[in-house]
Amino acid sequence: MQVSSPAQGYGPPPAANVNASYPAPTPPVQNVSALWWLVPFFFGLLGGIIGYFMVKSRNPGMARKLLIFGVAWTVVLWIISYAVSSLILGSFGGG
Fold first, then answer.
1. Fewest C-beta atoms under 10 Å: which of 39, 55, 69, 92?
2. How many domains does the chain have?
3. The pTM of the whole model exceeds 0.90
4. Whole-angstrom Cα distance, residue 59 to residue 74?
5. Are 40 and 70 in contact (CB under 8 A)?
6. Residue 4 lies inside a defined structural domain of this protein
7. Is residue 44 part of a domain?
8. Is residue 25 situated within a structural domain?
9. Tens-binned pLDDT, residue by residue, of the chain (95 aa)
C-alpha cells in the first residue's frame, strides 16, 4: 500500500514580506527649544557640534541643521574677518 503525500495548496499561504509596503516606524520627534540656535551662533563650529550631540536623540533633523549652521556660520565669519582685516591692513600699507 502506498501513502500519498498531501496535496499542494492546503494550509496557510507562504509568508510574504509584510514590511515591503510599509516604512519602518520612526520614533516621534520631540520639540526642542529654539534657543539651541544661539549655541552655534555664539560658538560657531564648536557650538554646532555641541548642539548636534545634545539634540540628536530628541530631534535628529534639527540636530543636523544645527551642525550645518555651525559650519556655515564659521565659514561666514572667517570670510568677513579676512575681508575686514584686508581693508584695514590695506589702508595702512605704504603702496
1. 92
2. 1
3. no
4. 23
5. yes
6. no
7. yes
8. no
9. 666 655 566 766 666 665 566 777 777 788 999 999 999 999 999 999 999 999 999 999 999 999 999 999 999 999 999 999 988 888 766 55
